[in-house]
Specification:
Strand order of the largest sheet: 5-4-1-6-10-7-11
Bound molecules: cytidine-5'-triphosphate, magnesium ion
Helix content: 25-40%
Number of strands: 18
Radius of gyration: 26 Å
Largest sheet: 7 strands, mixed
Number of helices: 13
Length: 405
């Protein structure tokens, strides 16, 4: 395994194929919503680069595999396009061990480390992720665990024997293993018909060296109704990030191109459009920049470089949709847009409704939350001389309820 500045290739497996019998209810446990998000979604989002980055971690997860009940396969597929790293959905098995084994079949051979996590633990300590991964460089696997704090009793001969808890730990997930070791452990378990409630036990059985990284009791597993109530309380009391953030964007392009004049995703003229690598839609570019700015995610040039041939002549609505994905991946959603286009000609008023509807559709917000205004500059400057068109946009975005921070 590589260490230090070189980040190992890591795959995260999420076990989410259980029904949650002890929790009960109609919806299987992984698909219950906590703070507006299913446990499955909370789990995969917690492994996204943005989440680990926010938690100040340097090790990245390169791919995520989610094991789900066959009945929820299609629902899980809906997550694929929202995830900024490759997400694979597999159908789990009758037991947790089998579900993980199914997922392991999809772990690419390049993977050095595999992290296994239960969807039933929505509060794992992301700020100790690096510690967990680094611990594997000194062993075959590392697990989060906490010292047992209850006094333990074993009923015996009509009495209760106290079990020494001084060297006992309660195991949690995520658990990270060397990929080859984990594969070997699961193959052996299959041959011997062994089923365990965690993967560390299977790795131990094939002689794997394991380490503990101290976790916290906040990383409890949701098992029964009382756990669920506690989880709801935790989410409702979690210190929320600022509910509202504001972003500003500006763009200008020169007129006189060969292509059509595109503004706000709407074609205003068949030729003589704005000159740019993409379709030159200054209004959409200003909105993208404002959205990225509000989320502190850089700017449009960073994400869609103007000299990148793949964006030549590109429909700028693609930028808007991609920006929306970036925002969502970071736990944000757009609320409102207010933009002004500065152009001497053509007259924009007849197109404003169409532009607003196009922008609203691409951002998944109500048209009433999108404002587009137009002004001339009374003959002054490059706009006044009809050399180009400029646009400014202000947006507000909000943090998505229940997104993991
Ligand atoms: N799990 C799984 N496949 C199974 C059983 C469990 O992927 N066949 C997953 C669960 O979805 C959960 C994790 O393993 O995220 C830990 O299991 P547990 O908390 O026991 O969940 P359930 O098995 O669903 O609950 P219960 O035992 O109460 O039925
Ligand atoms: Mg179970």
């Amino acid at each position: 395994m590589s260490e230090g500045t070189t980040t190992p290739r890591i795959v995260a497996v999420i076990a989410a194929a259980g029904s949650g019998e002890r929790l009960g209810g109609e919806t299987p446990k992984p698909w219950r919503r906590l703070g507006g998000q299913t446990l499955v979604e909370r789990a995969w989002r917690s492994f996204m680069p943005e989440a680990l980055d926010r938690a100040g971690q340097r090790h990245r997860v390169d791919a995520i595999i989610v094991a789900v009940d066959v009945a929820y396969q299609a629902v899980a597929h809906g997550y694929i396009h929202q995830c900024s790293v490759p997400l694979t959905v597999v159908v789990g098995g009758a037991t947790r061990t089998e579900s993980v084994r199914q997922a392991l079949r999809h772990v690419p051979p390049t993977a050095e480390l595999v992290a296994i996590h239960d969807a039933a633990r929505p509060f794992w300590p992301l700020d100790r992720w690096d510690e967990l991964v680094d611990a594997v460089s000194r062993s075959d696997g590392a697990i989060f665990a906490i010292p047992v704090s209850d006094t333990l009793k074993r009923p015996q001969d009509n009495s209760l024997e106290t079990v020494d808890r001084s060297d006992l730990w309660a195991a949690q997930t995520p658990q990270v293993f060397r990929a080859d070791m984990l594969r070997q452990a699961h193959e052996a378990a299959k041959e011997e018909g062994i089923d365990a409630t965690d993967d560390a036990e299977l790795v131990r059985r094939v002689g794997g060296r394991l380490q503990i990284v101290r976790s916290t009791s906040a990383n409890f597993k949701i098992t029964d109704g009382a756990d669920w109530s506690l989880a709801e309380r935790v989410v409702s009391e979690a210190p929320s990030q600022p509910a509202l953030r504001i972003g500003f964007g500006y763009d200008a392009h020169r007129l006189g191109g060969d292509g059509p004049l595109m503004l706000g995703g709407v074609m205003l003229a068949a030729s003589g459009g704005l000159i740019g690598n993409s379709d030159g839609d200054v209004l959409l570019h200003a909105i993208c920049d404002a959205l990225l700015g509000a989320a502190a995610l850089g700017d449009i040039g960073h994400h869609f470089p103007p000299d990148d041939p793949q964006y030549r002549g590109c429909d700028s609505r693609e930028f808007v949709r991609a920006t929306l994905h970036l925002l969502r991946a970071s736990g944000f959603a757009p609320s409102q847009v207010d933009a002004t286009v500065m152009a001497e000609a053509p007259k924009l008023t007849p197109h404003v409704t169409n532009m607003r509807e196009t922008i609203a559709a691409d951002l998944g917000i109500d048209v009433a939350m999108v404002s587009v205004k137009a002004t001339t500059t009374e003959g002054m400057g490059f706009v006044g001389r009809r050399e180009g068109i400029a646009a400014q946009a202000v947006v507000t975005i909000r943090t998505v309820l229940g997104s993991q921070s």
